[in-house]
Amino acid sequence: MSNSLFRKKSIEKIVKDAEAGLDDGHGHSGGLKKVLNVKDLTFMGIAAVVGAGIFSTIGKAAFDGGPGISLLFIITAVTCGFSALCYAEFASRVPIAGSAYTYAYVSFGEIIAWIIGWALILEYAIGNIVVAISWSGYFNNLLEGFGLHLPGWMITDPGSAKEAFTKAQETLNAGGALDKTMQFAYDTWNNAPVIAGKHIFLNIPAFIIVCLISALTYIGMKESKKMTNFLVIFKILVIIFVIIVGFFFVEPGNWNPFMPNDFGGVLKGVSAVFYAYIGFDAISTTAEECRNPQRDLPRGMIYSLVICTVLYILVAFVLTGMVNYSELNVSDPLAFVFERVGQNWIGYIVSVSAVVATTSVLLVFQLGQPRIWMSMSRDGLLPKAFGKVHPKYQTPWFSTIITGILVAVPSLFMRSSLMTDLTSIGTLFAFVLVSGGVLTLPRIANLTGNSTGKFKLPYINGKVIVPLLFVLFAFFSKDRIISSVQNLGSDNLQEILFVIFIVLAAVLSVLTFIRNYSLIPILGVLFCSYLLIEIPAVSWMYFLIWMAIGLSIYFLYGYRKSRLAKA
């Protein structure tokens, strides 16, 4: 059974399946329309990366880490850079839709490919629930700027509404006065419609925007591409404008202390900062719609990552320079800092840009998820319906509809906080396996029968560097290593994860010394693994439950229906 679990698909087989497609029920093949070039891919990467992170989660990260949060953006960018280079080599050799799922099928085998495909649902579909909720908040702020007010019960979820009302009620019971926020929460609860004794709260704007974006992705890639390019140009111009104007209000004294809560405070923002970067890999899901995927996919990934990193670092410096870091624990930090310096009109521009930015993220992620399901369907791991391509629009129409439902319905009532961490886990998990998978590539031929594609990862022998870095890390972390080992029996999942990371790092260091592994993929595995263990333990518990559900589906359906099983 172990052999069948790790059965692999050859690149030739993957390409043949992609070219043949699946019958759409009308006698048409499943080919996708090739309309994307390197500019489109770069814009798509920027669209996915510059979104909720730069307009919201950066605030909480700056509150925890101070001006030093700029270092975390650099660390995260380097980490993503290692993974991006690995994605680029895979994309060059395996220019097929499916992203990390397809790459894992080639390098590790079916069970790992399924795990990655299931984890990527967290990045694309579940991640888009968070983005939709953020979009709703920005949209509501924008409406209020024009004097329009939606009823409170139409713009929030039940959990948040009840929690806010409870706090307001406790304040009143204690004889205190309600501030503006508490009064809004109190009125929202009391004015909400009641059905069968339950107060009804639904995030209507989040639901509507997902439906509209899903309709656009259903119609076609060409239309989606034009919309993405327009949105990206607009938001980049606004962000550059904000950076330039913001520097005129910077007080250098706000940058001191640079790391007020030490490096540990900086690392507290790992999940929020990394969440800002996820999405550059969404480019790889569009491989079959690229005119020259082997050349353009690697370029699009790397260009977009570099541009976004520069923008994030500059925004971090402006934010922490305009006001003290301790004031930045707000949901709309960019608008907030300009209001603090008396430039409310810029706050309105930021609100418009935030709506545009999150719209572009929604668009790219809604494009990505259906194409992964389409690839899984071709392999027999999902029902054939998921692989059906529309005869007119040439899009995976059924998967697009299911993705729309999966995102739109939960966005009506779910809270976003837990989803952010789950999304980061799913993405980092994929990054680890893609980075590790590159190590198997010398044994894999590309479409032309050669061992290299048009992009080749630079080979740097890690024989000495990796063991040396591990020794240095172990030396500076010796106190935590000792503490983690001593507390292994205390059911502290965070400590268990740290010990697992140390063991993984030690094993990879030894293997790199013996086998002369390439430095970049090894660093990609180690950096992403470390970011994984910094995510709160409670999110890991939910992730393990998610994985258990996914494996159950695989063994009940995919394992038996797999095309490789039939072969």
UniProtKB/TrEMBL annotation:
InterPro entries: AA/rel_permease1 (IPR002293), CAT_C (IPR029485)
GO molecular function, one term: amino acid transmembrane transporter activity
Location of this chain's protein in the cell: Membrane
Annotated Cationic amino acid transporter C-terminal domain residues: 519-562
Predominant location: membrane
Top-level taxon of the source organism: Bacteria
UniProt keyword list: Membrane, Transmembrane, Transmembrane helix, Transport
GO cellular component, one term: membrane
Pfam families assigned to the protein according to its UniProt record, in alphabetical order: AA_permease_2, AA_permease_C
Membrane topology recorded in Swiss-Prot or TrEMBL: Multi-pass membrane protein
Signal sequence annotation: none
Transmembrane segments: 41-63, 69-90, 111-135, 200-219, 231-250, 262-280, 301-325, 345-368, 396-413, 425-445, 457-476, 496-514, 519-535, 541-559
Protein known as: Amino acid permease
The organism of origin for this protein: Panacibacter microcysteis
Taxonomic path: Bacteria, Pseudomonadati, Bacteroidota, Chitinophagia, Chitinophagales
